Every structure is written in structure tokens, then in C-alpha cells.
């Protein structure tokens, strides 16, 4: 029996590799003769860089950068040989590279440098947070001569339009007197009157792995939808939205780009860093799950499995709508493979006969205790149902 274990992270408790390892340990106890294929999933947030780097036999590097509140943090990123990336992922990147020539692709996750998880609750404030560290990782990758950069933007602490990242790449911000404003956190935006310099033209192509379709502004924009999750107070929403529109127009004008970029689907990803990098650095958006699926060769691994186990912290209607464990389950079911989903919470009914859903958290167990016990709860649930 061959089983595919394709788990995403259980937020605040288990990483995707840890969830896969716990599931594998439980299955080996009961079925030592089964063949297990562990395939941790990534959605662009925490784990994106190490999972993709490891899957393609790359190397992980550490670099000290500015954290979301300017504190120094050690952030990892990956270097992956182009020829080791599966052909389907190469096709999505569509780079004019020869498989016979040595070239590296950098894999960066914004969460490592500018992530919400790096801040305690009382430090989460999008007026004060910056994407500068993410720009420093991009700059370090470029310094190492990579052919392209793949950037996952999930889990960010910022709502700065990527201006902090752009400042690390060479864009400069000044007040009315010409005095520099660095880093350009939103708390200082009302003083910004001038943009100078810019991103070097020799910067490698940047691909942003992104599954959200939010524009930069408006009721479905970055500030309105994601600002409150990052500490934005309701009374400040209109002011930050106004300043975002002003700085967005300034950036478009400075870079000679149409302001229609602010309305592009996905421009609002990660506090608008997608907009900033598209406008100033020519970045391209790619479907995060499509890229991860191709990079991990999920289609082949699902086809080769007799059945599939997947899961995440919460499995609900949005899971089935398109990414991560839900997308794995839908594809496996389409290929006639039985699927079992294990999640901390299940908030949807199984839509197919071959799909079984299991909530691993016992009724009445407080969330804080469930998070601490997630590994044991997952192991126990798999022992019971598999």
C-alpha cells in the first residue's frame, strides 16, 4: 500500500513537515509494510522557502536582515539549481535558461523577514511595520547572481505597499526639505513628498507566488481585508487607505507605470508588496498553489498513491475552494483515490463519498491546549481511523 502524506501547517502548532512526520510515525506503527511518501505543502507563508528548497535539492542560507519592527532577525532563503526544478515548474516560470547551463533560483519567503509571527500581539501595528527585511533578502539573492527569485508572500506583518522592500533595493524617500525617510513605514507617509532613485535594472526577474486576488485599494483591498489581522484599529482604516492611495499614485508616477496596477488582481497581496514589486521591479504574479504543485510534482505523486492523507489547522469551505489540502483532495478524488483529511477543526461537510473528514480536537478542549497537543492529537486520530 502506497500512501501520500500531503499536509499543510497547523497554524501556531505544527509545521507542514512536522505534521507529515507525525502522520508517518502513526502509520508506521500500525502498517510497517506500507510505503509512505511525505510531501509537506506550502502556501507562500511560513515554510515556503525550506519546503521548496529541500524538495529540489537546494541549499538553505541564513542572512541577518531587518525584522518587521526594525529589529535584526536571522532569515533563511534557498538557492536551488535550475536543472533540479521539475519541468512543469520550469514551464510556469518560463525563463530563457538552458538546462545544461548552471544557474540558481532563489526561493524567499516574506514571513521569514517580515512575518506577523515574528511579533508578539502588542507589537502588531501596520503603521510601524516594514517589509525592508524582505527587500534585503532579495538584494542578497541578487548579489549572489541568481537567475530569478521566487517570493512567497503569505503571513506578512506589513501594509506598506512593499515600500520598505523597495527602499532596501535602492528607492529613496524624502520629505519636503529633502531629508531622507527610512524606513518608509506608513506612520511617516504623510511626510513623504518625493521619490528618487529606484530599483537597479539588473535585478533578476521576481516571481510572486500568490493565491489571493485582492486589489490594492477598496473594500476588498489590502488595508480593508487584511489590515485588522495585522493590528490596524477600525478608526484608522480610512486614513491608512487614503495614504496608501497617495503613495501608490506617487510610485506609479515615479516608475512611469499606469495607476491601473493598483486595481490588478493580487496587487493587494501581503499589504501591497505585490503592487510595489510589480510597479518598481517588474515582478510577475503566479498562482502559488500551481507553482508549489508543479515544484513538488504533486500530480505524479497523487497518481502513484493508493490513497491520500492531508490536512491543516482548519478545513472549511475555503479549503475546498482551491488551494492546499483542499486542492490536493479534489485532485485525488478526481483520479479515484480515497482521501482522508485530518484537521484541528472541520467546518464543512464531506462533498464526496471517498472523502472522509476528521477533527482531531476533542470537543470542549480549549484552543491553547489543543495547539500544544496537536502532534499527539494528530497521531491518535490517524491511529484510530487508519
Overall average residue pLDDT:
95
Provide a count of the helices.
15
What is the chain-wise order of helices and strands? EHEHEEHEHHEHEEEHHHEHHEHHEEHH
Q: What Rg do the Cα atoms give?
A: 21 Å
Q: Cα distance, first to last residue?
A: 12 Å
Uncertain parts: none
**Strand tally:** 13
Strand content: 15-25%
> Which percent range fits the helix content?
25-40%
In which order are the strands of the major sheet placed?
3-4-5-6-9-10
CATH architecture of the largest domain: Alpha-Beta Complex
Structural class: alpha/beta
How many structural domains? Answer: 2
Here the CATH topology of the largest domain equals: Glycerate kinase, domain 2
CATH superfamily of the largest domain: Glycerate kinase, domain 2
Major β-sheet profile: 6 strands, mixed
Overall shape: globular
What's the CATH class label of the largest domain? Alpha Beta
Structural summary, described in words:
By secondary structure, the protein is α/β, with parallel strands linked by helices. It has two domains: 2-40 and 297-385, Glycerate kinase, domain 1 (Rossmann fold, 3-Layer(aba) Sandwich), CATH 3.40.50; 48-289, Glycerate kinase, domain 2, CATH 3.90.1510.10. The chain is 36% helix and 20% strand. It contains 15 helices and 13 strands. The strands form three sheets. The chain has a six-stranded mixed β-sheet with strand order 3-4-5-6-9-10, with helices on both faces. Strands 2-1-11-12-13 form a five-stranded parallel β-sheet, with helices on both faces. It has a two-stranded antiparallel sheet with strand order 7-8. Strand 1 (2-7), helix 1 and strand 2 form a beta-alpha-beta unit. Helix 1 packs parallel to helix 15 (374-385), helix 3 (87-93) packs antiparallel against helix 10 (288-295) and helix 8 (237-255) packs parallel to helix 9 (269-281).
